[in-house]
Design brief:
The complex is a heterodimer.
Chain A: H1 7-27, H2 38-45, H3 54-73, H4 79-122, E1 126-131, H5 133-144, H6 150-156, H7 158-167, E2 169-173, H8 175-181, H9 203-213, E3 217-225, E4 231-239, E5 250-256, H10 258-313, H11 319-348, E6 355-358, H12 359-373, E7 378-382, E8 389-392, H13 394-410, E9 420-427, E10 431-439, H14 445-448, H15 455-460, H16 462-471, E11 475-480, E12 487-494
Parallel strand pairs in A: 7-9
Antiparallel strand pairs in A: 1-2, 1-5, 3-4, 4-5, 6-8, 9-10, 10-12, 11-12
Helix pairs in contact in A: 1-2, 1-3, 2-3, 2-4, 3-4, 10-11, 10-16, 12-13, 13-16
Chain B: E1 10-14, H1 18-30, E2 34-38, H2 41-45, E3 54-58, H3 66-76, E4 82-86, H4 91-99, E5 104-107, H5 112-123
Parallel strand pairs in B: 1-2, 1-3, 3-4, 4-5
The chains are: A alpha+beta, B alpha/beta.
Chain lengths: 500, 129
């Protein structure tokens, strides 16, 4: 039993009670077990702590009861008087035992509280406790007044939202919460949610709606204001009462997102920087490729035009030869135009954006698009299960795959119905691969095929394809296939993790 | 291998770009110079080099580069002039080509008149081995 008395008062009162019981028991002739009242002394003396043990009072009380008995009865007490003494001593003993048991229970509770408090304060996670009692009362009143659409009501009444925010009391906070908000003592922690939730906050409305819906949980990201007025990004999660009780003790577990936000910002900056570097790298690579690709047809054009001039300078001029080489120059010009158009298309889109691209669907799209343009050509597609991803610029990759398939197909000189193309994908832990096997080629297509560049891939810009593959960390290999009548093209690209 | 003069001027054109090969062949034909076309240096080496007055070869080619081809040719026919051309005409390539004994170093896109002047100069006797 814990009383509002001080220790000194309690001891004095217990002593006075003991003295009074002794006087009454010794000097009056009451025919009852007055000594039972010594149990009162123990109850008064018990301060609810371990400082004053019940036995310290029980023994003197028992002694006083025996002294009083001896004074009154000496050695001639009858049975009733003996039983009254025994009853009194038993009452004192039982009272002492009960008080001792209560003391032990209280100590257990106190130890448990201390343990809880230690855990509560040693958590790295900030926790503060909300009292939503008044808020719930207001929400219930709103509902009773006929407000069915709480969301619309709160949206139309921002002043009431601010008012409700001011009703949320903060009843407890741990040390991590103190550190998070820059407070130095629990007494100095914010008293109300509105003290540290900025006015422009939007998450509180969501919290109110969760309360209104009797949602079992609520979590959100928001900003809170620290002691110095700085805004701190946090994630807060609460378990809300669902039975209508316990709104006075709703704990919010709070995660400080400052570091994460800073990391995200740094990562974003690094990503932008990397993309800029990649962009510059690919533009540099493309410039080299453009230079190489365009210089070939330009060399041809120069040669054809110089040849044409010489045919025309002859006496008599050889007009037929001049026309022929001019036509060839025109054809070379078309090749150059095609290369420039393709490069222009890639470059003019500006910033390159990488994303996770599923490999097999990418190949399927490109192959199907080409198949519609070559309906009589035999296509054999063996694609993976779709779980392989690459990290890349999807439009560049589509262009790459289309150029390789289309280029491989067009390298054949035989009739379209005799052409066959086999397209397969494969993957291991590190790479995904596209293998294009083109067969039924006829001479003289084969001599055009080198291990670097099939003739018809030139127009499509194999150099550009290589630049795109290299941009994605991959490579392209082009070889004659087994019988020497076709080509094998292998595109290898780094495989990306799904979580990337 | 000691070179004997070919019975008629013939230039070996080595380039993996078919359009370049055929255009150069057309240019040479306009000045009545015969040419044989090869898509790689290895294909050229399968032939008798004594037939050629000049080898005009690209540098960047798969398999055997123009510089390597120059070495191989000079090991077989030390006096056969080999002109190298490239779409990447940086100073390093130029220096390497000339150090290896290239007859000329030509940058792509080619200046057709310079090509003709080179061949006419060679056929005029100054450059013939």
């Amino acid at each position: 039993m814990v009383t509002p008395f001080t220790d000194r008062t309690r001891v004095s009162l217990a002593a006075l009670t003991a003295a009074a019981v002794f006087v009454i028991d010794t000097f009056t002739r009451l025919q009852s077990a007055v000594a039972v009242l010594y149990a009162l002394v123990l109850l008064i003396a018990d301060d609810g702590t371990s400082r004053l043990r019940p036995s310290r009072w029980a023994y003197p009380c028992a002694v006083l009861a025996v002294i009083s008995f001896l004074i009154n009865h000496g050695g001639g007490a009858d049975t009733d008087e003996m039983l009254r003494l025994v009853a009194s001593l038993a009452a004192v003993t039982i009272a002492a035992l009960l008080l001792a048991r209560n003391r032990r229970l209280r100590e257990k509770v106190r130890a448990s509280d201390l343990r809880y408090e230690t855990i509560f304060n040693s958590l790295a996670l900030a926790i503060w406790e909300h009292d939503f009692t008044q808020v719930m009362a207001e929400l219930n009143a709103l509902k009773a007044s006929g407000v069915d659409d709480l969301e619309a009501h709160l949206r139309d009444n921002p002043g009431q939202v601010a008012h409700l925010c001011g009703l949320v009391r903060i009843t407890h906070a741990n040390d991590a919460a103190m550190r998070l908000l820059g407070r130095t003592g629990k007494a100095g922690f914010f008293e109300h949610l509105s003290d540290f939730l900025p006015e422009e906050d939007k998450s509180f409305v969501e919290g109110l709606l969760a309360l209104g819906r009797r949602s079992p949980t609520f979590e959100t990201e928001c900003l809170v204001r620290g002691a110095q007025g700085e805004l701190i990004p946090i994630f807060i999660a609460m378990r809300l009462p669902t039975d209508g009780n316990g709104y006075d003790r709703v704990c919010g577990s709070v995660l400080d997102l400052t570091e994460r936000k800073r990391m995200e910002k740094n990562l974003e900056a690094a990503r932008l920087e990397r993309d800029e570097a990649l962009h510059r790298a690919i533009i540099g690579g493309l410039s080299t490729s453009i230079s190489h690709e365009v210089s070939q047809p330009l060399s041809s054009i120069n040669a054809y035009l110089a040849a044409a001039r010489r045919w025309l300078d002859r006496r008599p001029p050889d007009l037929a030869e001049a026309r022929r080489v001019i036509a060839q120059a025109q054809h070379a010009g078309e090749d150059a135009t095609q290369v420039i158009a393709q490069v222009h298309e890639v470059v003019e889109r500006g910033r390159l954006e990488r994303s996770l691209v599923p490999f097999a669907p990418l190949i399927r799209r490109a192959a199907e698009a080409i198949r519609t343009r070559h309906p009589t050509t035999s296509f054999d597609l063996t694609l993976g299960d779709g779980n392989e991803y690459i990290l890349g610029e999807v439009q560049l990759l589509e262009r790459l795959v289309s150029s390789l398939i289309g280029g491989g197909l067009n390298a054949s000189h035989c009739p379209e119905e005799q052409r066959a193309i086999r397209i397969a994908t494969s993957a291991d832990g590190s790479y995904v691969r596209l293998n294009i096997t083109c067969s039924a080629f006829t001479e003289p297509a084969v001599p055009w095929v080198s291990d670097r560049q099939p003739a018809h891939l030139s127009a499509g810009g194999l150099s550009l394809c290589r630049a795109i593959a290299q941009f994605h960390g991959g490579s392209i290999r082009v070889t004659r296939n087994g019988e020497g009548t076709g080509i094998d093209i292998e595109l290898e690209l780094p495989r990306a993790c799904d979580e990337e | 291998m000691n070179r004997t003069s070919p019975p008629y001027p013939c230039v070996a054109i080595v380039d993996d770009e078919e359009c370049v090969r055929t255009a150069l062949a057309g240019l040479l034909r306009s000045v009545d110079v015969h040419s044989d076309l090869f898509e790689s240096g290895l294909r050229l080496l399968e032939h008798d080099l004594s037939h050629f007055t000049l080898v005009l070869s690209d540098i960047q080619m798969p398999g055997l580069s123009g510089i390597e081809l120059l070495d191989r040719i000079h090991s077989i026919a030390p006096d056969l002039p080999v002109a190298l051309m490239t779409a990447f005409p940086d100073a390093e390539w130029r220096q390497r080509a000339l150090e290896k004994g290239a007859y000329r170093f030509l940058a792509k896109p080619l200046d057709a008149d310079a090509v003709i002047a080179m061949i006419e100069g060679l056929l005029g006797g100054a450059g013939q081995a």
